[in-house]
Design brief:
Order of helices and strands: HHHHHHHHHHHHHHH
Helix content: over 70%
Radius of gyration: 19 Å
Shape: globular
Largest sheet: none
Oligomer: single chain
Strand content: under 5%
């Protein structure tokens, strides 16, 4: 957050966040448009929190500096739940905690996930470590989100568990080159070794002829999470799950396009066109 924005009033901050999300034109924005204004602004504030800690983890600062930056936000989360938030964003989030029964553990889990990135570049993690990472950086966000959507039953947390993992694994498969340029490789060690990719160094792994097979295996895991998320949604409040259903549809289409491309030309961008995102938003937003 810029110094000016950190000192902004809550109203000014909400407007700034809303403008940034809208300008990004992301799948998140299309899905969140289905929410009533108050819930939409709440989701935008959670998005801003995630961007804040993610930007720290992805910065060019030293690991010690990243850790210090994340520690500031860890302290701010404690202050939010103690009723003494100091930053403009913290004060906005403090309003949301009682309104939507948001849990401190979920905010802290996001920071825990960013610390995994900040401590060292992740390269070919074990499947269990990758699953923990996905839970922290994605499913924890989902657990915050479903409460803001309007459903706090166990089935909604199950949606968060599976959909968060599905979305994060799809992002990993989409961003192989970008992550590799940062010295990161999120493809799990077990899948790489199973296809003869013994070296977890990003450049070597991404240029290995067996890479598409390892990616196909991870895509299959993502697909299973998409399926389980859809099943859990059927046990939730239908209207509340509309944004989650749109995110599932858009990202499942992205995964389908990635599989069709085959991970052989990693430099070729794979995207879901805005027109199709709109159609999916209309289809699943009116269900």
């Amino acid at each position: 957050m810029t110094a000016a924005l950190a000192e902004a009033s809550p109203a000014a901050l909400k407007a700034e966040i809303r403008d940034k999300v809208q300008a990004a034109g992301s799948s998140f924005y299309w899905a969140m448009r289905l929410l009533p204004p108050a819930r939409r602004d709440a989701m935008f504030a959670v998005y801003a929190y995630c961007r804040e800690v993610d930007d720290i983890a992805d910065s060019d600062a030293s690991p010690a500096a990243k850790e210090a930056g994340l520690a500031v936000w860890r302290a701010e989360v404690a202050a939010i739940f103690a009723g003494s938030a100091r930053t403009a964003l913290g004060k906005v989030l403090a309003e949301l905690v009682p309104a939507y029964q948001l849990r401190q553990a979920d905010f802290l889990a996001v920071i825990d996930g960013m610390e995994m990135d900040a401590a060292e570049d992740i390269c070919a993690p074990a499947l269990a470590d990758l699953d923990l990472y996905c839970d922290r950086v994605a499913s924890a966000v989902g657990r915050l989100s479903v409460r803001i959507f309007g459903d706090d039953r166990p089935a909604a947390d199950e949606v968060a568990h599976h959909l968060g993992r599905a979305l994060q694994l799809t992002n990993i498969l989409r961003d192989l080159v970008e992550d590799g340029e940062r010295g990161r490789l999120y493809l799990p060690r077990e899948l790489l070794v199973a296809h003869g990719i013994e070296h977890g160094e990003p450049a070597a792994a991404l240029n290995h002829p067996s890479l598409p097979m390892a990616c196909d295996d991870l895509a299959a895991i993502a697909d299973r999470h998409f399926t389980e998320a859809e099943r859990a949604m059927r046990r939730c409040a239908r209207r509340a799950m509309r944004p989650a259903a749109v995110m599932r549809a858009v990202y499942q289409e992205l995964l389908r396009r990635l599989r069709r491309q085959g991970w052989r030309d990693l430099g070729a961008p794979v995207r879901v066109p805005g027109s199709l995102k709109l159609l999916l938003a209309l289809r699943y937003g009116l269900m």
